[in-house]
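Hi C.,

You asked whether I'd gotten around to modeling the 204-residue construct. I have! Everything is below, sequence then structure, no commentary in between.
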Amino acid sequence: MSNRPPQRTVQRRYRGRFVVVVGPDGVGKTTVARHLVGLVDGPTAYFHFRPPVLTPMAAGPPDSMDPPLDKSSSTGSVVLGWVRILRNLMWFWIGYLFRIRPALSRGTVVVGDRWAYGYVAQPGALKFFGPQSVARWALALFPRPDLVVNLAAPPEVIRERKAELSPEQIEAELEAWAGVPGVWSVDASRGPEETARAVLMALG
């Protein structure tokens, strides 16, 4: 008779992945996010810009989205901009610690539409009017996703999707997002499903 203790079957729980989709208006961020959560074989969670604190994250993007942020402001209060960025830093961390991290521990793929990278690429939309060097420094204080995907496309493709944008606006946004540090640029003109598959492959 064996004195060995009975063998236990240990089920390994894999950590989820946190991916953020960024890029200029009209490039198809929300559409790619919708395809991405549809391709994931397992639990998913989605949020727009900032993770929720008082409510759970959704399983995927809603059918209708809020209108894009107003980026027309080029000047404003630097002090108020600092207040906003510090407030957002607090709320981002609270949302990350109480919503995103627990979801990742359950093996959930969390998809964020935007995140805090707009402070570098579109500071006017977030009402931040300080120097770019300060925006880059502040960005480093926010929680870091596993993968940040910058969706890019030829200007004519974006113009077809977002006719209200001028060619100059599109070129400026593409250039601004290309200069954001720590992002992986993907050609989104191939179509949302193929783009989502490329992102999922990069996530492993």
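If it helps when you're writing up: The two ends are 46 Å apart (CA to CA).

Thanks,
B.
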